[in-house]
Amino acid sequence: MSDLVIISDDGPVRTVRMNRPEKKNALTLPMYDAMAAGIESAAQNSTLRCLLIGGAPTVFCAGNDIGDFLQMAMGSGALGAPILRFLYALARCEKPLVAAVQGNAVGVGTTMLMHCDHVVAADNARFSTPFVGLGLVPEAASSLIAPRLMGQRRAFSLLVTGRQLGAEEAKAVGLINTVVAADAVEAEAMKAAREIAALPPHGVLASRRLMRGSPDEIIARIDEEAELFKTRLQSAEARAAFEAFMTRKK
Length: 250
Hints:
Strand order of the largest sheet: 1-2-3-4-6-9
Radius of gyration: 17 Å
Structural class: alpha/beta
Shape: globular
CATH topology: 2-enoyl-CoA Hydratase, Chain A, domain 1
Helix content: 40-55%
C-alpha cells in the first residue's frame, strides 16, 4: 500500500500523497487507512508542525473507488471503517492542514478540503460533489461545514445540485485560498506549509482550537451523515444510479 499513499517528512512538514493516478486517485479502503495513519501518527511527532495533502500532477482525487462503493451497497451499506477513520483523523487533527490540488477533486476529494486550513489549487482544478446525483447524501461533515464556509445557497448548489466549481469560483466562495498555474501548485503549497510551520507552534495550536472549536460537533455530524449514507446506499434510487453509472462506463 505504501506505493498508493506516500508519506514523507521534510523537516517540519509531512506530506500525505495519494498516488494512484491511473485510477484518478480514487480512494480504496486501504488507502483511507494509510492516509489516516499518516495524519494520526503526526500527533506524536513534535518536530512536525504542518501536514500537506497532495495528489498527482493531473488529478487530486476522484472520490471513492467505485468497486468499494458497490461492495458496500451490496453488503450492509455501512461506510467502511477505514473511511470513518480517515474522516475522524481530519476532524481531530491538531496540526495545520494544507492541500495542493491539481486537476479534479470529486466527492471526498472536495469535502476533505473543508477540513484544511490552507488550500492551493491549480487554475485548471475543478471541484464537485455528486453525492445526491447518485442517490446519496454528503459526507465528511460537509453538510455542516460547507454552509458555514460559503453560505446556505452556495453550499446547496455544490452539495445537492452537484454543480461543479472552477478554481476561481472555489476561491471566491472560500473553499480554497490561492489559485496558481498547475506547475506552481506544489511549490506554493509547500511554501505555505513552511510558513505555517515557522510560526510559534503553541500559538498556532491555541488559535486553531479557538477558531475550529471542539471536534465533537464535527464528529457527531460525520456519524449522522454516515447513518444516512448507509440507508441511502441501499435505496432503490442509489442502486438505479449506480447501475446507470456502470452502464455508462461500459
